[in-house]
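Lab notebook, bench 4. The sequencing result for the construct came back, and we need a structural model before the next group meeting so we can plan mutations. Quick request posted to the team channel:

Model the 3D structure of this chain.
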Amino acid sequence: MKQVLLIATGGTIACRETENGLSPALTGEELLGLMPELNGICSVGVSDLMNLDSTDLTAADRAAIARTVWENRGGYDGFVIAHGTDTLAYTAALLHHMLPNIDRPVVLTGSMLPIGVPGSDAPRNLADAFRVAAAGCAGVLAVLHGKIMPGSNVCKRHSSEADAFVSANAPLAGTIDETGLIHWETPPQAAGDPSFVDTIDPHVLLVKLTPDIESTFFSALHRYPKVILEAFGAGGIPSRLEQAVRSLIESGTRVYITTQCSEGGVDLHKYEVGRRAEAMGAVSLGARTTEDALAAVMCGEI
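Done. Here's the predicted structure in token form:
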């Protein structure tokens, strides 16, 4: 039987109602105690790494999750990370880049309703995550609502529906039906030797452009070494902001461009505004999601 490590981090899946609203309370062992069906899927170990609302997770917390996976990979066939849904996509993307070519499954899951609440999606998501973690695949994945999504392409599309996530700019790796049977499209496997990126730079600022943002705003960005601009459509910098952005680049700040669209990506060659942005030194982030772009820049890949 496959050995899988549950890394508990908190989130809605582990929440209980308090006088101040939902708050993470359950340990990994308590989660497992509510999931007797896991006994037929795999043997489970537990690491109670943290117990936080995912809104409170920092880059250092995400790095600690990655390090826990790396340091325990010799003892387990797979990993399940119980995580809050609000920032699950950010964690999935960063783990994808911190654990390149990881040679076993690292599966993030969570729920929109706490485990134990009537109608909760937690039991299915957690059981499905363990099924995938014991399936002999590899890489960072997210498993929610019967979908198996590549970690670099996970996006939360809805704040309350059970089907809250999509795989943006990439097909699903597979699906899991209500009987627990996995239907792979392309079972992910490692493409090279696994490694661990132990140094990341969280000092990356993400700025969403709006139609009326003032050029003077950019003077406050000169202290940031790396800035990602969420631009409109296929990407570009409005002409009235070009001098401010050029000055930012000339000061030594590396400027990247992604899109506010959830799918499709950036094409700086399509429009004149995009070509001018590229000519001044802005770097296209292509079809990366915002979460994946941020992770790639933090890991120094771009």
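The mean pLDDT is 96.
Will bring this to the meeting.
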